[in-house]
C-alpha cells in the first residue's frame, strides 16, 4: 500500500480542523527550527498553538494517522545545521530535544529538512546524525518505562533503494505573463510572473481558474505537465496522472505533497490526479 503524505504549512488564520485527515496516512507540520546556541529544536511562540494541537485535532477524524514535525525548511539557517552535525555533543542535544518535543506534541516522528547539505563533510556528519538518531529512537521506545512506538524519522537523502523512496509532488503551479498571447506553447517567452507576486499558485486556485475561464488544458508528455492560457496569462502544473503510473507500478513506497495548506488539502484527493 502506498503511503499518502502531505506537508502542511502553518499560516496565520490556519485551522487544522479544516483538514480532512481521512484522506492521508501521514501529515507533516512545518517548520520547527534549530536553536543556534543549544542546538535543540525550537518552536516559535506564534506557531506553538498550531504545533501543540496538530496531532490531537487530526486524530479526531482519523485515529490511525501519523503526524510528523518538520525541522528546517527553505528559510532555515543552515550554518547552524552544519555546526550541529559536526560533533557528537551537539548532535546529542539535537536528538534528545527531538524525542522530547515529539512526545510533548504527541507526534509520531520528524522530517529532517536540510535541503542544502551538499559538502562531503556535511553529508558524512549527517550520516552520523542519522545513525545516532535512529539508535536513540530505538532505545527510547524499548526502554523499561516506555510504552510508545519508535519515532518515524525521514529526510531528503541520495542513493536510496526505490522501495524506500518518497515521491514528492509539488502541490502548486506557476503563472506567467506571456510576451505574446498568440505564442503560448511550452517555452514561450514571458515577461514576468502573473497573478501572484512570485507566480506560484495553489492547486485549488489553479482549478478555479480552469473552471472560471473554461480553459482547454493541454498535456505535454516530454515535460509531464499540463498547461493552459487565457489572454496573456499562462499557467502550468505537474501532471499527476502520469506520476500515478510511476507509483502504481510499485516504484515508490510513498507520495508526498509539497506546500499543502488546509483549503487545498480539503480540495485534493489522491483519486483525482489530473485537472478536469
Automatic annotation (TrEMBL):
PROSITE patterns: GH18_2 (PS51910). One of its GO terms (biological process) is carbohydrate metabolic process. GO terms for molecular function: chitin binding; chitinase activity. GO terms for cellular component: extracellular region. It comes from the Eukaryota. InterPro entries: Chitinase_II/V-like_cat, Chitinase_insertion_sf, GH, Glyco_hydro18_cat, Glycosyl_Hydrlase_18. Coiled coil: none annotated. Residues 3-276 form the GH18 domain. This is GH18 domain-containing protein. It comes from Canavalia gladiata (Sword bean).
Amino acid at each position: 500500500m502506498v503511503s499518502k503524505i502531505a506537508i502542511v504549512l502553518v499560516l496565520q488564520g490556519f485551522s487544522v480542523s479544516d483538514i480532512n485527515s481521512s484522506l492521508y496516512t501521514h501529515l507533516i507540520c512545518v517548520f520547527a527550527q534549530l536553536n543556534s546556541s543549544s542546538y535543540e529544536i525550537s518552536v516559535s511562540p506564534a506557531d506553538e498553538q498550531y504545533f501543540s494541537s496538530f496531532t490531537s485535532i487530526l486524530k479526531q477524524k482519523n485515529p490511525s494517522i501519523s503526524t510528523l514535525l518538520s525541522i528546517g525548511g527553505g528559510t532555515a539557517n543552515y550554518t547552524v545545521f552544519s555546526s550541529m552535525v559536526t560533533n557528537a555533543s551537539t548532535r546529542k542535544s539535537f536528538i534528545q530535544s527531538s524525542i522530547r518535543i515529539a512526545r510533548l506534541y504527541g507526534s509520531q516522528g520528524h522530517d529532517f529538512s536540510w535541503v542544502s547539505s551538499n559538502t562531503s563533510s556535511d553529508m558524512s556528519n549527517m550520516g552520523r546524525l542519522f545513525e545516532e538518531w535512529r539508535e536513540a529512537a530505538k532505545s527510547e521506545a524499548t526502554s523499561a518505562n516506555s510504552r510508545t512506538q519508535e519515532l518515524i524519522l525521514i529526510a531528503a537523502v541520495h542513493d536510496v533503494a526505490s522501495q524506500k523512496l518518497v515521491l514528492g509532488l509539488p502541490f502548486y503551479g506557476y503563472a506567467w505573463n506571456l510576451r505574446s498571447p498568440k505564442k503560448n506553447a511550452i517555452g514561450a517567452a514571458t515577461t514576468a510572473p502573473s497573478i501572484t507576486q512570485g507566480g506560484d499558485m495553489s492547486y485549488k486556485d489553479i482549478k478555479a481558474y480552469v473552471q472560471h475561464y473554461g480553459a482547454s488544458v493541454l498535456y505535454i508528455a516530454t515535460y509531464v505537465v499540463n498547461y493552459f492560457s487565457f489572454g496573456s496569462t499562462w499557467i502550468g502544473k505537474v501532471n499527476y496522472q502520469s506520476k500515478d503510473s510511476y507509483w502504481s507500478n510499485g516504484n515508490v513506497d510513498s507520495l508526498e505533497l509539497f506546500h499543502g495548506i488546509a483549503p487545498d488539502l480539503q480540495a485534493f484527493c489522491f483519486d483525482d490526479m489530473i485537472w478536469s
